[in-house]
Design goal:
With about 325 residues, this protein is of the alpha/beta class. The protein is built from eleven helices and twelve strands. About 40% of the residues lie in helices and about 15% in strands. The strands form two sheets. The chain has a seven-stranded parallel sheet, with helices on both faces. A five-stranded parallel sheet has the order 9-8-10-11-12, sandwiched between helices.
């Protein structure tokens, strides 16, 4: 089995974010199956390989480069065009194309559908992000009525809804790194998450939306947007509540009603099984086996399926219009 090199711009400072932590967690999972290592390409880091040094090696046929940092993908594809490359897709909506020689592993079905439409001749897989076992319901007394993390939250949430809720219940706003996030989720009765506005500004999609899933696993009642990858698992009215609905008053009413309700539904553990280690490691084994089979085949066989390029789409559309006109006006000829 080929060794995997996970390409990251860096692993600290300005590169610290949810996407980085998710990618590093994936590296750890892959290392349970085969050899894998982090390679940086924007900054050199002690104890880690740097891409320019690595590419000086002559024989890299038996390795796979895993790229994931959305805004850098186009440049990396060009730089690595002669090598085995896999795109680990989190968000969707970036303005780049991928050749069919690059398989795609998506973290949500929402993203898988995007690439399934955009690259119909590519090898595509679904591998959800892992929810660590530490995120579980401890069944302890909850002293926070409403919990919200400021990062990625909408202006409506922070400037309108939260100030109004502050007047009526105990609201805790997180605006810095939390050492014990499972513990904090277990203290909260309701968790608010509204990222649609943030991702619309970024012009890409919510890749997975880890926090609402982690909050649900800890027994929180979740009010959330359902954009992008959140739509994979959030089901308003059944396992969560939709946030930012019609009016601030309606949101406040529903939140307060839930706080006063004696019924506190919890999700069965089987709901989270898809995102736990046991399932993900099994899926990962299958995906890695098939990737190696694909790259073995690629050595012997060039691609011969036409890609769905803009030019080909234009030709198909023109042909379709031609046949419709012919059928309508020249049927008797």
């Amino acid at each position: 089995m080929r060794k995997l090199y996970f390409l990251l711009p860096g692993t600290d400072g300005k590169f610290a974010c949810g996407g980085l932590w998710a990618e590093l967690k994936t590296v750890n999972l892959v290392q349970q199956i085969c050899s894998a290592e982090v390679v940086t390409y924007r900054q050199r880091e002690t104890g880690k390989l740097f891409i320019d040094d690595l590419l000086k090696e002559k024989n890299l046929d038996d390795v796979i480069f895993v790229i994931s940092w959305g805004f850098d993908i186009a440049k990396l594809v060009t730089k690595l065009k002669q090598y085995n490359v896999v795109y680990h897709a989190h968000s969707a909506g970036y303005k780049f194309q991928l050749p069919s020689s690059i398989p795609i592993i998506t973290v949500s079905r929402n993203t898988m559908g995007y690439w399934g439409q955009k690259c119909p001749d590519s090898l595509i897989y679904y591998l959800p992000n892992q929810i660590s076992d530490e995120f579980k319901n401890l069944n302890i007394q909850r002293d926070i009525d409403v919990l919200v993390q400021a990062r990625k939250s909408s202006e409506y949430l922070m400037k309108e809804l939260i100030p109004e809720l502050h007047k009526k219940c105990n609201v805790f706003v997180v605006n810095s790194y939390v050492e014990d996030l499972p513990g904090l989720f277990n203290r909260a009765k309701i968790y608010l998450y509204d990222s649609a506005e943030y991702w619309a500004q970024q012009r890409v999609s919510e890749g997975f939306g880890l926090q609402p899933m982690e909050a649900l696993a800890c027994g929180c009642q979740v009010f959330s947007s359902v954009n992008g990858g959140l739509s994979d698992y959030l089901d308003p009215g059944f396992n969560c509540y939709k946030i930012a609905v019609y009016s601030q008053e309606f949101d406040v009413q529903r939140i307060l009603n839930l706080l006063e309700s004696s019924v506190k539904p919890t999700l069965p553990e089987q709901f989270f099984a898809e995102y736990r280690y046991e399932n993900i490691i099994k899926r990962l084994q299958v995906i890695l086996d098939e990737l190696n089979e694909f790259f073995d085949h690629k050595i012997q066989q060039p691609s011969n399926i036409q890609s769905l390029t803009k030019m080909r789409l234009a030709k198909l559309l023109t042909r379709s219009i031609y046949f419709k006109i012919r059928k309508k006006y020249f049927r008797g000829l």
